Amino acid sequence: MKDIKIICDSLSDIPNELIEKYDIEVVPLTVILNEKEYKDGVDISNDEFYKTLREENVYPKTSQATYAQFKEVFEKYVNQGKRVLYIAGSSVATGTYQSAVMAKNDTDGEIYTYDSQAFSYVIGILVVEAARMASEGYDIDEIMKAIEELRDKTYVLFSVDTLEYLQKGGRISSTKAAIGSILNIKPILDIKNGLVAPVCQVRGKKNVISKMIELVKDNCGENLQDQTICIGYSDDFKERERLTEAVKAEFNPKDILYFQIGSCVGSHAGPGLTGIVCIKNK
Asked: What keywords appear on the UniProt entry (predicted)?
């Protein structure tokens, strides 16, 4: 059925070419930078955002997408006779999902919501798959079942370059951040129960990629040749290329997809963020 409209929020970090290919509607969250509000990915580009963080030493904040935003979007597509599926960023970490549920309850029409319990392109993988299936005529129940299964198989790791932003956002204590900075500790993180969670830590940035590769092998297996591995980056293109080289050498995947980590996730992790998303094969 091609009357299904797939909607997500800007936490999903989907590359523009895929948004355009599948006609995905993205509801932006708000980023507050230097006391000025920007719609994520609309009023400020990712490159501009990270450049500001590097040059001005500022600590941005984020604000959830609102009831009014979702009400407008839901009504727009319901009035076109479409059924709506909204795939959300983690409800544990942001009130955006709750805004959508409230708007859904106040809107006449067939609207479905799915809490990904995730961030960044972990959401994006689900959204793109849902949009692909919708374009091929699958029904809503089939799509919901497929993305639930895909979510369970998706594996993510990422590493931050500085602990300052995690500390400012209350994710770690100031003592841990200070000690980590002195010892040049780089944490490797994943997502558990809808929140960022530590996996391990390494000394020095040069050891991050080898540890990530080791963890991917342990959790996903070594035979990933049949899949597209997704590599996330903020503004560190050299680290992106190093990770690309390691992924090609160790896994020889069918393809590599790059996604730039947007300003909402970047607000809490800072510049220099690198990540990998793949599917568990074991």
From this structure: Lipid-binding
Q: What is the number of helices (H) and of strands (E) in the chain? A: 11, 13
pLDDT along the chain (282 residues), means of 10: 88 96 96 92 92 89 95 97 96 93 96 96 97 96 97 94 61 51 75 86 87 96 94 94 96 96 88 93 76
Euclidean distance between CA atoms 12 and 19, whole angstroms: 11
Measured torsion, CA atoms of residues 43, 117, 50, 163, in degrees rounded to the nearest 10: 150
Amino acid at 176: K
SS3 148: helix
The residue type found at 118 is A
Residue-range domain boundaries for the chain: 4-152, 154-279
Strands 83-88 and 111-115: parallel
HEC string of 176-224? HHHHHHHCCEEEEEEEECCEEEEEEEEECHHHHHHHHHHHHHHHHCCCC
- CA-nearest of 238, 230, 233 to 254 is 230
**Angstrom distance (rounded) from CA 270 to CA 58:** 10
pTM of the model: 0.92
Q: Please, are residues 103 and 207 in contact by the beta-carbon 8 Å criterion?
A: no
Q: Domain 4-152 classified CATH 3.40.50.10170?
A: yes
User: From CA 265, how far away is CA 271, in angstroms rounded?
Assistant: 10
**Architecture label for domain 154-279:** 2-Layer Sandwich (3.30)
